[in-house]
Amino acid sequence: MGWFVGYYQGSRNPEQKLSVETRCSGQRFRWLSSGNAIKTYKYNVLTFLPLNLYEQFKRAANLYFLALLILQIIPDISTLPWYTTLIPLVVVLGITAIKDLVDDLARHRMDKEINNRKCEVLLDGRFQESKWRNIEVGDVVRLKKNDFIPADILLLSSSNPNSLCYVETAELDGETNLKFKMGLRVTDERLQEERQLAEFDALIECEEPNNRLDKFMGTMLWQRERYPLDLDNMLLRGCKVRNTEECHGLVIFAGADTKIMRNGGKTRFKRTKIDELMNYMVYTIFVLLILVAAGLAIGHTFWYEEIGSKAWYLYDAKGQDASYRGFLSFWGYIIVLNTMVPISLYVSVEVIRLGQSKFINWDLQMYFAEKDTPAKARTTTLNEQLGQIEYIFSDKTGTLTQNIMAFKKCTIAGRSYGPVDWSWNRHADRKFQFMDHSLVACVRSRKDKDATEFFKLLSLCHTVMVEHKDGDLVYQAASPDEGALVTAARNFGYVFLSRTQDTITIKEMDQESTYEMLALLDFNSDRKRMSIILKFPDGRIRLYCKGADTVIYERLSPNSRHKETTQDALDIFANETLRTLCLCYKDISTDEFEAWSRKHKDAQVAMSDRDAALDRVYEEIENNLMLIGATAIEDKLQDGVPETIAKLAKADIKIWVLTGDKKETAENIGYSCSLLSDDMQIHYGEDKLRIRQANRRNEPSTFRPGKKKPAEPFFTEPGKNALIITGGWLVSSIQVQCCFIFYFPSAKWWLVLICSIFIFSERDSIDFVNMACECEAVICCRVTPKQKANVVSLVKKYKKAVTLSIGDGANDVNMIKTADIGVGISGQEGMQAVMSSDYAFAQFCYLQRLLLVHGRWSYIRMCKFLRFFFFKNFAFTLVHFWYSFFSGYSSQVAYEDWFITLYNLCYSSLPVLLVGLLDQDVNDKLSLKFPKLYLPGQQGTLFNYRNFFISLFHGIFVSLIIFFIPYGAFLQTMGQDGEAPSDYQSFAVVTASSLIFTVNLQISLDTSYWTFVNCFAVLGSIAIYFGIMFDIHSAGIHVLFPSAFTFTGVASNALRQPYLWLTIILTVGISLLPVICIQFLHKTIWPSVGDKVQRNRKKYEMEEEEKKKPSAFQRGQRSRRSAYAFSHSRGYADLISSGRSIRRRPPARGGPQDSIREVPQREAENI
């Protein structure tokens, strides 16, 4: 890991550049700041055309058509005018280039606006206005209220007490709530005036520029003292100063080195299964094109030897032999048949995906009015994948639940208290509910020492910020759990009032007390606990600790009482779906604390692995704890969660819950949200896997990687199975720490390598996945964010399944990025999950509409579009193939040149495009009522190689009919006027007209949902064809461009013959008749689920809704326990201990709802 080392002294001279040193691997390098100007645009006036074309021609399809265009320029090869390929290619390239240009112009404007913003910089001993682009590393800047922060800045001082500064980070992480930042105490006291800032000199040593928004590590050496720096001392670029009149800071990272710019890199590109399949099909078409062209070239070689060379009227005086002519014919047919590889396919697919994304954004039934949050498709490339989901991986807290906590029960010294009139306490929160008056009486009497310590701990051991607003207390907590606990203490008479860096003040039953805070040991997801060390007014030193029962019980003193009774209470609380937390304390002697404090200070300024060093020091003091009791908090389910899970299960979607909570908590929530039911057999995965591994060890090893072996089922009993497994087993099975020691005799030095090795063997991985996939429901508890992603990866790897991950917090980001589709919920834990997701909305219940409606529609539309797109191109192109048998395989085209050019652009594109955008087999209500309609997407039955070859053979059949019926009608024919219309040009008009009618009527037969737009597109395409054809066959345009328009008068001459119209009608009829018959037989004899629903659609739509039934879930059916009430987020400990008292903030959001809203539960009819 590298470190930036900078030395700052005094104000900067405008012409002087600050020199910064980089220390990496023990060496020192000079580094010059590149300035603060940013550049996000890709092109300028000179580079736009070459760079954009270069990027577009990196796509294989565009490069292929460019090669065709080059071939068409060669006279000996070209069988089509160059414009037949150039015009479609230019249209495709032009549309893409215009889109790229519009995007880049917007980036140009944004860069210019940002780089020219103004800021006050300390120059020549005084603050002067300067543009952002001129700011450099080492400058001291002054920011005022509502200013955007121009660079990553070390906060030195502010106008607020103790240099506290409020920032809004909406542009950084999407969160609108204010964050607290603060300067060091030493800089706050000594760097308030201009003169002091101009004389400021310090050595700043910090990490090298990186993209981690949640971490910063460094030290400041000033006046021979070292001071630790972390993220709470930093103002990051992209944030906005709020509620702070003025602040000063030192620029640490500028321009492209800032964290927000480092996060501007590309995310992992996700592709759908249809994308991959479509690419393989294009490659298949290309292979078919080569084979067909080669076969026709060989045919031309033999034809020329046998016939062509002997026909005097075909003599061209070129002197070319048959083989060479066959070679030229090969390239000629590559040009003629190039429309088998559709140039407009990818552009059309992107248009359809963009439209489908807009439909998701505009869906009012996925709009959450309470937070004014609509659904948002953050990508346009994955819509059809939503219709193929097989596995859903969901977080629990904040995703299935509301993450709004309410203090419900507690146990103190072995006695449990459950849910009072709070009129006796004027500081009480009126929204707080608790129903056990005996606890209130016990607390008010002050006779129960344990009850006093219990609520004193809740009011002191936390990282909550407080402000006094209009005579009321407003708390800002790092997690909803912590806010609920402090509010509970407040209602019981232990009111948290204020805090400074060194003290915390509470009111104990109307008596105000101030405690000296010696240390604050903050929570993180590894520790699962937090502690505070306080010095009481009487001189005693005490540590208060609260955390998950698994970590607290490991650290309890052997003399601690009430362990068993508290354990029993935890089981009872868990049976009621409550989240639990254990409270304990420890008295510390002065000598013990002073010895520990010295280690703590050393760890705080460690330059490497600071977090690990602090954790080791924390472990030394957090032992021999005395248990006080435990709290129980209710986290209510979101509205509609049980119904959503039940409906997704009927769609054969497997739902796995991956949570950091304890096994019993997760299991209990599984019952309450209908993921688990009483008719399921619950299995604990560790036992099953240990048995399987033991059996394997006792058997001879026959497993070979890559060699398939019949899998032995884990569950042989009939019935439904559910699996519950803990992350602890996954840790022991997946990863192990290893140490390797190497000695180099020649150099006489040792190398010690410590690393993590994954030993989760392939057999164990397959066992875990197979066992889990045999179950209807899976719950993985006590899993870390990394383990969540590992579980998703295993299912993707071994089941080749389409996966979706859904979560609401920063701990879910890894899982969301790993899955094929990531969904973020904008909940109580910020916007990190949303910022990393592909789709975002506010409630879990919207997931059923996203998948069963939008996902299914998108999949059906895309499959129908692709099938028809391939069919119409095969039917169009293969007419040339049949014509070649009658033209000596000479690469002669069967159509007019302009028809070939405009076929995919004007004559057949709009109807199929609208089917891809608007078609639906049943409406949204029936899609939700019949989840079984989702199955074809999971099975991939609507678009695969079978469908591709069906489209191929359908195209071959139609092309055969379109060629040979007009050919037979033209053979030895005489017109009404005695003229012979059986010429090549009239034949081309008749075949082209038959093709246009056939493909447009065929898409009409395949359209399930008719609108005025669809009807207009079909009739309009036919009208456009005839309008353009009569124009380009007119004498006027032939006079202007005689060489380009050679079919003068052909259309008017041919189409005035009645028998040619009869020929067109006969051709179209025979082409469509088999399709009509097959569709009729399928819908009547072998109807699908969708066909059955469509047949009774009106009946279902007219049905009256059944009376809504309340949820059948009842508490207390099974004995389960829960624990671990912390969210996966860091608290405000660093802010407090470095510290500043809190200024006023806007009022906090209202409390939780009174009860869970009962949601109607209605089962759809199974077909």
UniProtKB/TrEMBL annotation:
<keyword id="KW-0256">Endoplasmic reticulum</keyword>
<dbReference type="GO" id="GO:0016887">
    <property type="term" value="F:ATP hydrolysis activity"/>
</dbReference>
<feature type="binding site">
    <location>
        <position position="395"/>
    </location>
    <ligand>
        <name>Mg(2+)</name>
    </ligand>
</feature>
<feature type="binding site">
    <location>
        <position position="812"/>
    </location>
    <ligand>
        <name>Mg(2+)</name>
    </ligand>
</feature>
<feature type="active site" description="4-aspartylphosphate intermediate">
    <location>
        <position position="395"/>
    </location>
</feature>
<feature type="region of interest" description="Disordered">
    <location>
        <begin position="1101"/>
        <end position="1167"/>
    </location>
</feature>
<feature type="binding site">
    <location>
        <position position="546"/>
    </location>
    <ligand>
        <name>ATP</name>
    </ligand>
</feature>
<feature type="domain" description="P-type ATPase C-terminal">
    <location>
        <begin position="834"/>
        <end position="1088"/>
    </location>
</feature>
<dbReference type="InterPro" id="IPR018303">
    <property type="entry name" value="ATPase_P-typ_P_site"/>
</dbReference>
<feature type="binding site">
    <location>
        <position position="661"/>
    </location>
    <ligand>
        <name>ATP</name>
    </ligand>
</feature>
<dbReference type="GO" id="GO:0090554">
    <property type="term" value="F:phosphatidylcholine floppase activity"/>
</dbReference>
<feature type="transmembrane region" description="Helical">
    <location>
        <begin position="80"/>
        <end position="102"/>
    </location>
</feature>
<feature type="domain" description="P-type ATPase N-terminal">
    <location>
        <begin position="35"/>
        <end position="86"/>
    </location>
</feature>
<dbReference type="InterPro" id="IPR032630">
    <property type="entry name" value="P_typ_ATPase_c"/>
</dbReference>
<feature type="binding site">
    <location>
        <position position="660"/>
    </location>
    <ligand>
        <name>ATP</name>
    </ligand>
</feature>
<feature type="transmembrane region" description="Helical">
    <location>
        <begin position="1009"/>
        <end position="1028"/>
    </location>
</feature>
<keyword id="KW-0472">Membrane</keyword>
<feature type="binding site">
    <location>
        <position position="808"/>
    </location>
    <ligand>
        <name>Mg(2+)</name>
    </ligand>
</feature>
<feature type="transmembrane region" description="Helical">
    <location>
        <begin position="865"/>
        <end position="886"/>
    </location>
</feature>
<feature type="binding site">
    <location>
        <position position="396"/>
    </location>
    <ligand>
        <name>ATP</name>
    </ligand>
</feature>
<feature type="binding site">
    <location>
        <position position="812"/>
    </location>
    <ligand>
        <name>ATP</name>
    </ligand>
</feature>
<feature type="binding site">
    <location>
        <position position="397"/>
    </location>
    <ligand>
        <name>Mg(2+)</name>
    </ligand>
</feature>
<feature type="binding site">
    <location>
        <position position="397"/>
    </location>
    <ligand>
        <name>ATP</name>
    </ligand>
</feature>
<dbReference type="InterPro" id="IPR044492">
    <property type="entry name" value="P_typ_ATPase_HD_dom"/>
</dbReference>
<keyword id="KW-1003">Cell membrane</keyword>
<dbReference type="InterPro" id="IPR059000">
    <property type="entry name" value="ATPase_P-type_domA"/>
</dbReference>
<feature type="transmembrane region" description="Helical">
    <location>
        <begin position="280"/>
        <end position="303"/>
    </location>
</feature>
<keyword id="KW-1278">Translocase</keyword>
<keyword id="KW-0547">Nucleotide-binding</keyword>
<dbReference type="InterPro" id="IPR023298">
    <property type="entry name" value="ATPase_P-typ_TM_dom_sf"/>
</dbReference>
<feature type="binding site">
    <location>
        <position position="811"/>
    </location>
    <ligand>
        <name>ATP</name>
    </ligand>
</feature>
<feature type="compositionally biased region" description="Basic and acidic residues">
    <location>
        <begin position="1155"/>
        <end position="1167"/>
    </location>
</feature>
<dbReference type="GO" id="GO:0042995">
    <property type="term" value="C:cell projection"/>
</dbReference>
<dbReference type="InterPro" id="IPR023214">
    <property type="entry name" value="HAD_sf"/>
</dbReference>
<dbReference type="GO" id="GO:0000287">
    <property type="term" value="F:magnesium ion binding"/>
</dbReference>
<dbReference type="InterPro" id="IPR001757">
    <property type="entry name" value="P_typ_ATPase"/>
</dbReference>
<keyword id="KW-0333">Golgi apparatus</keyword>
<dbReference type="Pfam" id="PF00122">
    <property type="entry name" value="E1-E2_ATPase"/>
</dbReference>
<feature type="binding site">
    <location>
        <position position="782"/>
    </location>
    <ligand>
        <name>ATP</name>
    </ligand>
</feature>
<feature type="transmembrane region" description="Helical">
    <location>
        <begin position="898"/>
        <end position="918"/>
    </location>
</feature>
<dbReference type="Pfam" id="PF13246">
    <property type="entry name" value="Cation_ATPase"/>
</dbReference>
<feature type="binding site">
    <location>
        <position position="523"/>
    </location>
    <ligand>
        <name>ATP</name>
    </ligand>
</feature>
